[in-house]
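Materials and Methods. Structural model of TAF1A polymerase. The 412-residue sequence of TAF1A polymerase from Promerops cafer was retrieved and submitted for structure prediction as follows.
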Amino acid sequence: SPNEHKLNFKKSKEACLSYIQDALLQKQWKRAAEFLTCYVESLEKDYSREHIGPSEMIWRIGTEILWHHSQSSMKEFNCFMEQMKTLGVKRYLKVCLEHVFHLLCNGQIDEAYQNLSLAESWRFGEQTAIQDKEMKLIQAYRGLLDYCSWSKQKNILLEHGEDGFSDLAAEQEMHGYFRKAAVNLKEIIKIPGVWDEFVKCYVDLLEFYGDHNEARQVLNEYAYNSKFPANPNAHVYLYQFLKRQGESKKSLISALKILHDIVPSHELMIDFNTMLQKSKKRKKRRLGLEVIFAALDYAGWKENAKAWSCLAKQVKQIVISEKHLDWIQQEWNSRKDWWPAFHFSRYLAKRNWQENTSLSYEKALVAGILLGKDCKYFKYVSHQGCKAQLKRFRMLKKFVNRHNPVYLRISG
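The predicted structure was written out as tokens:
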């Protein structure tokens, strides 16, 4: 009966799909390709109108296979993509974008640009309006490629110094790229989203032509507009821009404060701590201590000699002045249960001493103050340092022994 035939057909089609999935998961690209061919052939006999368009599946699976298949060529990939563009109008621009990424990954920049230009001129009734977002992406990537051409041209002219910029035709060509890139990049970054590369390129264009106000506005908007998703990079770009502009310490600190709140383990926390330590204000120095302690809570920082040096320096200052020992105590209270095993074990003392004596010196100072002169880490490192007759380790031992009462006060 026709119903039975339909049911069997549906079953075999589903089985075929699961075989493809299995082959993809096992990275058996040749086997996946064979099953996909069967799937496509079976679809040609299928007259049912399914909820999810098979063309979408063919596009996604086919792309994945061709991307990894050892025997597939760029020519085959291009041919497949052109077929996919005609298969589904609703996905036309998405397919175009994917095609462009593939061309870019293969270094075919001119071909990618041509494809973007073709896609940009695409019109298909109401579909054009529905795919407005994809169209903006197409334009944005074209802007990115125009930026690359501008950058290339700029570097050539800069290499030739004054002579370069006296070549009027070359300079006009560069300005042409600038105009095209700026228009498209400016448009895309108005839409709430994560546009890191586009923002960086647009700001670079603006800075080159001395439009610092516009650059500042763009970066402020990107970092502080609540419609945009929270994005640590937005604050990094703003901070780097303010630094290039020679802005006040106050504005640099406020940019990094937000970054610290979002990503306490960001590499810029060393700059932040250094700035705060130098401040005359007590509140800022207090924050500096909090910042460096928080950064060292993360495993990626365990062997960062610069970070340990920042902490050691600040701890030493506090201990010598005997002011603000409560700051150290507050930071230590929430960490004394787990930092000893995390940072100050005898195993780590041995490893740090072998790999980096400067790191072990800074850590030993901190360990000696926080855990006292009987701490395993401090004892091992100071012993090795004195055995190697290194003067600073002798001084370190004296310092920690002299200030052992501090440890008693901190540990309460």
